[in-house]
Structure formats: C-alpha cells, structure tokens
Amino acid sequence: MSRMKEKYYKEILPKLKERYSKRNVMQLPKLKKIVITMGIDAAIKDKTAIQEHKNELALLSSQKPIMTKAKKSISNFKIRKDQELGIKVTLRKKRMYDFLDRFCNIVAPRIRDFRGFNIKTDGLGNFTIGLEDQQAFPEINLDTVKRSQGMHITFVTSAVNQEECIYLFELFKFPIKRRK
Length: 180
Known about the structure:
This protein is of the alpha+beta class. It has a domain at 3-42 and 91-171: 50s Ribosomal Protein L5, Chain: A (2-Layer Sandwich), CATH 3.30.1440. 33% of the residues lie in helices and 18% in strands. The protein has helices at residues 3-19, 48-61, 93-110, 162-171, and strands at residues 31-39, 66-69, 84-91, 127-131, 151-157. It has a 5-stranded antiparallel sheet. The longest helix is centred in the middle third of the chain and has 18 residues, at 93-110. The two termini are 35 Å apart.
C-alpha cells in the first residue's frame, strides 16, 4: 500500500471522523484524482515539442499522457481545429497517492524560493496549482530538456467546500502557507 494512502486510512480518516462526527464515513472528504496538464504553445511552430514534453510528462507521472486538441480554429493565434496543443494525465488510486507523496516530500522543496502554496479552492473542494517549469521533478534529466514548460496540477477532492478541502490537505501535510 502506498505511504500516503496508508496515512489517509490510519491517521487522517480518524481525525476527519472526529471533526465531522455526524457524517457517514463515505461523506468525509478524500482525494479522488490528480490531473496534470501542459498547454504547449511551442507546438504551433515545432512539431517535436509535443513528443518531448509527452515523454517528460510520462516520466513524472508514470502513465502515458493523452493529447488535447483545439475545439475550434482561431486565426489570430494560428490555431486550426483538431490541432494538438496540449497533453494531460489523470492519476487515480495508487499512482495518485504515489505522486502526492513525491510532490509533497521531494518536488515542492526543490522549487526555487518556495515558501508554500497559496491555497484557494474553486469553492467545491478542488484546487489547482501552477508550476513554471518541469525541472523541479527529479525524474526529468536536465541535460535532455530543451525548453522550460509549465504545468497545472489539479487536485480533485470529494470535499463540499473550501474549509474541508484545506483541512484535508493540512492533514496530508501538503506544503501550503499557513492561514492567519
């Protein structure tokens, strides 16, 4: 069993039961999935850029990414309908908990000038963080990286409001700035 999954069931779930005592166990907040997306603007000019970033995303997520395509043509941005512009990965179950463990304990401390993430959810218990480059991940070989590429990481939870989501991630020891 993954270290973070074990922590959820042995440490976090009893604390959630204690705090939200009138709820059923199935109503308690939990992490459902993690979605990692990369919008590749260099894909318009360089066709090999997508394949390079696809390989990098596969390395850091341990899963094959899928391509995202443009829904409609936009002439000002030189985008055509069905043109491949990005890649994404959805992590669930064991891979999700393994990625969360690596992200909290290895990747976040490697980010330059890092003092914690500002946690602001969408009001439904999900939140997204943006990273400026993929070089904070130890799986990426820095000698093979040709260009810096940012990414968005979305943590989808079953929490019904922002307060539950923040409390859940505080129990996971997620690197967030402390609330005042």
